Amino acid sequence: MNHIKMIATVRHVFSLLMQGEYDKLEDLTNSIRLSASELREEVESNGQVLAMPPDSFFERVYDPDDNHFVVTEIDNSLPTQWHVTVDLWTDEDEFADISLEMITTDNGKEVYDVEIDSLHML
Description:
This protein is an alpha+beta fold and about 120 residues long. It has one domain. About 30% of the residues lie in helices and about 30% in strands. It has four helices and four strands, in the order H-H-H-H-E-E-E-E. It has a four-stranded antiparallel sheet with strand order 1-2-3-4. The longest helix has 16 residues. The protein is globular and about 40 Å long.
């Protein structure tokens, strides 16, 4: 896995979530799994105001024992895919009670292709 590319991918998804750009997220994921309205509903039902985490948060991708940013390669996937579980962040500088699960796929671009599996309460 290219750590820099994974961080860029997660930052991009987080940025769209924080800005409420659910239609752009649906486009990014090619409408696979969750629609814009489902993404909006999951975020808004949480009741917390989401925010971009500090830069130090993204360095967690380098720590295999971290449970707030977990990346696992999917065996025998071609092209290579990773299952990513990452906790979201609040405007109160703490972890939100919601987690993002997605599949990223290697594609030769600056960020991985993304399929959002779920946004769920912890």
